[in-house]
């Protein structure tokens, strides 16, 4: 079975390569006519991508970009599709050409390991390649961590200059050739002095953006001035309600993202006897090895956990929850029927399949000083149930939950 899947993937990758070749020829290899910056990594790609673009734009540079959230070419915004970060080769080349025609100087392209491994970005002439980190994710596809790192490293090999995070464990697995042509970002830059309110994980994203903009010729003053007006992308530590309790929406969907996000939320926002109520799930037909780890991390920092749907696709939803539960049990969490949960409960979890109902319930039981965090969907506009995509808006779901609480 594994051998069959291996050969199927090889054929698929060859198909993408042919499409990338044809797309480059059709659009005239447009990336050679613009300064390309690629950003890859498990976590932090979108924030780093949009931060680089924002700094450049604030310094009167013509810049376009493609991120997980959207594509912005000059002043026009495009939706890149459901659950998509790096689009197909034809759309990539089309958008780069459009940027060139609109006299853009820079193009920032968020680049996934899948896009690199599958040859979807073949022919893109990267000037700078950034690797933010490589943590536990996509091992269903890459099979092991080493393969995952090597897929990410392809961006560094394609780029003329690499930008590396020396704090990440992936650094030790990168080839010497990649390290030799790369510049590292580290804590010597006094980001903390300028932006003391930043979370720990966003400091690293800011350091990466700083190094890229420095390479592109901007001064420290220009970079820091640009950073001051930056707002995190939609669905990234987004406080959407802040009255008697807080509600935060975040796209976090990996163990590392949980590990970075949840303790920061406890540290910055929880006070008095407030509880951290966390609503989350795990995607179906994706890396199942991460699920118990996500449960363990969520249990370490959360008080009340509500397991719910997050694109379960054709997998059994309750099987996904069962795998998450292994981690929760390690943290001594107790399962409780949602109709028996009260406003004083801690170290308990429940399962509510329908995501809207899960959010409604979390808001219903919230008390003064609680913090509700919704992870996994963020900016996305659909939920995949079975083989169909259903419209979804995490922000509207919160509005619905708040209205029901008042009634």
Task: Describe the structure in your own words.
- This protein is an alpha/beta fold and 407 residues long.
- The protein folds into two domains: 2-228, Mur-like, catalytic domain (UDP-N-acetylmuramoyl-L-alanine:D-glutamate ligase, 3-Layer(aba) Sandwich); 238-406, Mur ligase, C-terminal domain (Protein-Tyrosine Phosphatase, Chain A).
- 43% of the residues lie in helices and 18% in strands.
- The chain has helices at residues 2-27, 45-58, 89-101, 113-117, 139-142, 145-158, 176-180, 191-194, 200-215, 220-228, 255-269, 291-301, 317-330, 355-365, 394-406, and strands at residues 35-40, 63-66, 71-73, 76-78, 106-110, 126-131, 161-165, 182-185, 238-242, 246-250, 276-280, 304-307, 334-335, 348-351, 371-375, 382-385, 388-391.
- An eight-stranded mixed sheet has the order 4-3-2-5-1-6-7-8, with helices on both faces. Strands 9-10-15-11-12-14-13 form a seven-stranded mixed sheet, with helices on both faces. Strands 16-17 form a two-stranded antiparallel sheet.
- It is globular and about 60 Å long.
- It starts with a helix and ends with a helix.
């Amino acid at each position: 079975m594994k051998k069959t899947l291996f050969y199927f993937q090889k054929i698929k990758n060859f198909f993408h390569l042919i499409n990338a070749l044809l797309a480059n020829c059709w659009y005239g290899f447009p990336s050679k006519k613009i300064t390309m910056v690629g950003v890859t990594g498990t976590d932090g790609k979108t924030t780093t991508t949009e931060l680089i673009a924002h700094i450049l734009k604030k310094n009167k540079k013509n810049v376009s970009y493609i991120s997980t959230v959207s594509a912005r070419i000059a002043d026009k915004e495009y939706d890149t599709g459901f659950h998509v970060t790096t689009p197909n080769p034809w759309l990539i080349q089309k958008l780069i050409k459009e940027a060139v025609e609109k006299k853009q100087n820079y193009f920032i392209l968020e680049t996934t390991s899948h896009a690199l491994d599958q040859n979807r970005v073949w022919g893109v002439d990267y000037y700078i390649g950034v690797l933010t980190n490589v943590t536990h994710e996509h091992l269903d596809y890459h099979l092991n961590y080493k393969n995952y790192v090597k897929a990410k490293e392809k961006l560094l090999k394609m780029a003329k200059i690499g930008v590396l995070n020396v704090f990440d464990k992936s650094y030790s697995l990168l080839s010497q050739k990649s390290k030799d042509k790369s510049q590292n970002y580290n804590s010597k830059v006094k980001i903390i002095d300028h932006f003391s309110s930043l979370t720990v994980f966003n400091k690293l994203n800011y350091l990466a953006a700083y190094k890229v903009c420095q390479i592109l010729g901007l001064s420290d003053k220009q970079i820091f001035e640009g950073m001051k007006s930056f707002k995190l992308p939609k669905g990234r530590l987004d406080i959407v309600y802040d009255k008697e309790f807080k509600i935060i929406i975040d796209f976090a969907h990996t163990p590392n993202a949980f590990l970075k996000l949840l303790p920061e939320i406890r540290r910055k926002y929880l006070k008095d006897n407030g509880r951290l109520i966390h609503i989350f799930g795990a995607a179906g037909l994706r890396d199942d090895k991460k699920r118990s780890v996500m449960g363990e991390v969520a249990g370490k920092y959360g008080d009340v956990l509500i397991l719910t749907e997050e694109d379960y696709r054709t997998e059994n939803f309750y099987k996904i929850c069962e795998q998450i539960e292994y981690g929760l049990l390690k943290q001594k969490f107790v399962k409780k029927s949602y109709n028996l949960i009260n406003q004083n409960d801690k170290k308990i979890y429940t399962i509510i399949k329908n995501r809207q109902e899960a959010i409604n319930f979390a808001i219903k039981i919230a008390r003064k000083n609680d913090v509700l965090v919704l992870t996994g969907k963020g900016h996305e506009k659909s939920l995949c149930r079975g083989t169909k995509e259903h419209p979804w808006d995490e922000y509207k779901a919160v509005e619905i939950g708040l209205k029901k609480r008042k009634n």
